[in-house]
Design a protein that fits this description.
Length: 262
């Protein structure tokens, strides 16, 4: 599997970098063999968790990367308490996106449509924007990229990572991952520790399971609706499956915002 080959490669590159050499020379640090053993144990845990996630995702049909028509739906209620978002905390209309960093239609949406929504609604303080991972089994690098985004999020750089991951969807190699983290201004040691661990696998598993319960089996998918007064619950009255046009989003958002506008 490509993902499982990528991780040891960039880890060895990091160990051979000046930072890695300095870390190995520090007298108080673990020996090189101990570090390698720990990384091997982490890889074994990662393999087990990926097998579980793959089994979960394979319960859905393989997703074709073609836009799907939007569909009306009964109101769907989702708890979004504590989830990171873009926009004003006071906004009471929200979009929740399920996406895959290796999906070409997701990238097209991120480049062509999302900036228009961001300018007209998110930056204007009218809409909150939530993002949830839904890495597809047909994309071998999607799970790793989802973890990259979340590890960047530990340093308050998720959205910057989000934008870069969609701008360039090539698989990572060691130098590429290092250049990515440096471009975001990440603390390299913290990022390395996160990305070589199995951190966030459970959170990504929960995200995928939530999409499954909502019968969402394609990306990008968008749930649009009103938030509760405290902002912790989203009541979605519209679901888009596929990269809809900006006008389609505008029609739904303007209708939801009518009561809030003077």
């Amino acid at each position: 599997m490509k993902l499982l080959r990528l991780v040891p490669a960039f880890v060895l590159l990091l160990l051979l970098s000046p930072r890695g050499i300095q870390a190995r020379q520090a007298p108080e640090g673990p020996s090189l063999q101990v570090q390698i053993d720990r990384l091997r144990e982490g890889q074994e845990r990662l393999q087990r968790d990926l097998d579980e996630i793959r089994a979960l995702l394979k319960e859905r049909p393989a997703r074709a990367e073609t836009p799907a028509a939007n569909r009306p739906t009964d109101t769907l209620t989702m708890n979004v308490f504590g989830e990171p978002f873009r926009g004003s905390a006071a906004a009471r209309v929200a979009i929740l996106e399920y996406s895959d960093f290796d999906c070409t239609f997701c990238a097209k949406y991120a480049k062509d449509i999302y900036p228009l929504i961001d300018h007209a609604y998110i930056q204007a303080g009218l809409v909150k924007y939530f993002f949830r991972d839904l890495p597809g089994p047909e994309h071998p690098n999607a799970m790793f990229k989802a973890r990259v985004g979340r590890c960047a999020g530990e340093q308050e750089k998720f959205w910057e990572a989000h934008d870069r991951l969609f701008q360039d969807q090539r698989p990572f190699d060691g130098p590429g991952l290092l250049a990515f983290s440096e471009a975001l201004g990440l603390d390299q040691a913290r990022f390395d520790t996160c990305i070589t661990s199995d951190r966030y696998l459970e959170a990504i598993r929960r995200s995928a399971a939530g999409a499954e319960r909502l019968r969402i089996n394609g990306t990008p998918a968008f749930l649009i609706g009103a938030l509760s007064e405290d902002g912790s619950v989203l009541r979605a009255s519209k679901v888009f499956l596929g990269a809809e046009s900006f006008q389609a989003f505008r029609t739904v958002l303007d209708d939801l915002l009518k009561p809030a506008r003077p």
